[in-house]
Amino acid sequence: MMIRNLCLLVLLAIVLMAMTACSQNDYSDLEAFIQSSGEGLKGQIDPLPEIKPHQYFTYQAFDIPSPFVPRKNGQVQAVASGIQPDLTRRKEVLESYPLENLLMVGTLQQHDMIFALIKSPDGTLYRVKAGNYLGQNFGKINHISESEVKLLEIVQDGANEWAEKTSTLMLKN
Q1: Over 90: is that where the pLDDT of 6 sits?
Q2: Alpha-carbon distances, residue 22 vs 12, 34, 95, 154 (angstroms)
Q3: pLDDT tens across 46-89, in order?
């Protein structure tokens, strides 16, 4: 009990000393700093910049070509190439995957016919031959060798204009 009273007495003394330290209102050093901080400063505020009047621009849409018309080499292409994919043809399974996601994993040969083994992203293995379609750009297989599958894709070049592009799917080691 005596130790408890002694601890309370020491705690009370510490609290009283803290309160007396905080109660002093001597800010003379702060006031002196504020008074001396502006001494020796000589400055000038720059005048505001002159406000220039707004210059209006008249947009002449009839003098420039439309940004919505496809162009080739800076000129508007008016003649269609005549190349178009067969949109009425029933799509094959491997046309639902981008060509970049398909892997050629091998070849098979039966009599004179060479088949390529294509692995889809879901892990399914497909056997394809020349004339089958791959990828999402209407890619028709032209040639199959032991190391690659060559196909001709039909890609959209501009608005309602199609172009042929040769692509190759290489054998994955």
Answers
A1: no
A2: 16, 22, 81, 84
A3: 889 999 998 887 777 766 777 777 665 544 444 456 788 888 89
Tokens of 153: 């894709």
Q: Considering only CA atoms, which of 95, 96, 103, 147 is closest in space to residue 123?
A: 103
pLDDT (tens digit, 9 = 90+) per residue, 17-49?
Answer: 777 766 666 778 888 888 888 777 777 888 899
Q: Cα separation of 153 and 87, whole Å? A: 14
Domain limits of the chain? Answer: 93-168
Q: Which residue has the tokens 């007396």?
A: 20
Name the residue with tokens 């060509």. Answer: 99
CATH of domain 93-168: 2.30.30.830
Q: Tell me the C-alpha distance between 143 and 156, whole Å.
A: 23
Could you tell me if 123 and 42 are in contact, meaning their C-beta atoms sit under 8 angstroms apart? no
Report pTM: 0.53
Return the exposure string of 53-82: e unless at least 16 CB atoms fall within 10 Å of the residue's CB, then b: eeeeeeeeeeeeeeeeeeeeeeeeeeeeee
